């Protein structure tokens, strides 16, 4: 295996595999993530429970939050009005 091929294999996104056995629809999967995130931003108003996020950290490898951040959503726009009525 050439050095360039090893480097390219490291750059693959792990859940989709890589090489000859990689997922053939990886680009579709990544596009769906963008569309889903855009729909969540467009169709909901987001807020934090209590009005303010507690950003205090605990000690750890990834600096986890001491208290979890709880997000509340409220429907702003129905993305499929024809289906619901």
From TrEMBL:
Name assigned to this protein: Cytochrome P450 93A2
GO-annotated molecular function: heme binding; iron ion binding; monooxygenase activity; oxidoreductase activity, acting on paired donors, with incorporation or reduction of molecular oxygen
Annotated compartments: Membrane
Membrane topology label: Single-pass membrane protein
Domain of life: Eukaryota
Pfam family membership, one: p450
Gene Ontology annotations for the cellular component aspect, listed alphabetically: membrane
Cofactor: heme
Family, as annotated: Belongs to the cytochrome P450 family.
Keyword field: Heme, Iron, Membrane, Metal-binding, Monooxygenase, Oxidoreductase, Transmembrane, Transmembrane helix
Signal sequence, renumbered to the chain: none
The UniProt record lists the keyword Transmembrane: yes
Gene: CYP93A2
Main subcellular location: membrane
